[in-house]
Design goal:
This protein has about 210 residues and is an all-alpha fold. The chain is built from seven helices and no strands.
Length: about 210
């Protein structure tokens, strides 16, 4: 009975994770749609800002999932690595006075996506928690994006950066929403089972044969 009560009292997954993940997916889709226009904008400020925003939500989402012993390490790694690399690029630009080039952003995206894919795959293979299907698909997709970004970084254009960042934000949003939803459903199912077990426990000691 004590174990059931402890299980019921576990906090829920942060309620913002699901809607924020969906919102990020829409933002990534919008950036992909804009980059597909005949005359898309050539500035790198928007994709850079979106990448930093996605990193912050990855950090927050990973911290929330880690509280529930669920997949969260890869989300923390994704957010932290992206912020570190973005800070490095921004600092380099301030020191040298040179603008951030698409090639540099492609390298940053490629390296971070490969690292995220590897850590996400390790999370799934070691922890095997709820949401592992979503995380497995996400790991594969991030690895593919990383390979694509690194394979053509020398010839990359601002439009390609828009598409890469749009794909990353879309994928990150879908992964955050899908994993948060899976973990929440798993918690609700286990809470319901614990309540049933707790309600049935008082009648168990009765012995009508005495």
């Amino acid at each position: 009975m004590a174990h059931a009560d402890q299980h019921i009292e576990q906090p829920e997954v942060a309620p913002w994770a699901l809607p924020v993940g969906i919102a990020l997916a829409f933002v990534g889709s919008a950036l992909l749609a804009v980059s597909a226009q005949p005359d898309p904008p050539s500035s790198l400020r928007l994709p850079a800002a979106l990448a930093v925003g996605w990193s912050l939500f990855e950090l927050a989402g990973g911290a929330s999932l880690m509280k529930h012993h669920a997949i969260g390490t890869s989300h923390l790694v994704a957010g932290a690595l992206q912020l570190v690399l973005a800070g490095f690029l921004a600092g380099l630009g301030l020191i040298t006075g040179a603008p951030i080039l698409p090639e540099a952003m492609a390298l940053v995206l490629g390296v971070s996506c490969l690292c995220v894919g590897v850590f996400r795959a390790l999370d799934v293979s070691i922890l095997r928690p709820g949401g592992e299907v979503t995380e497995s698909l996400s790991a594969t997709a991030f690895l593919v994006i990383g390979v694509v970004a690194l394979s053509g970084w020398r010839e990359v254009t601002p439009v390609v950066i828009d598409r890469l960042v749009g794909a990353v934000v879309l994928l990150g949003g879908l992964t955050l929403a899908g994993t948060a939803n899976s973990v929440r459903q798993e918690r609700q199912h286990s809470h319901g089972a614990a309540r049933v077990a707790g309600a049935a426990a008082p009648g168990a000691p009765l012995n009508w044969g005495d």
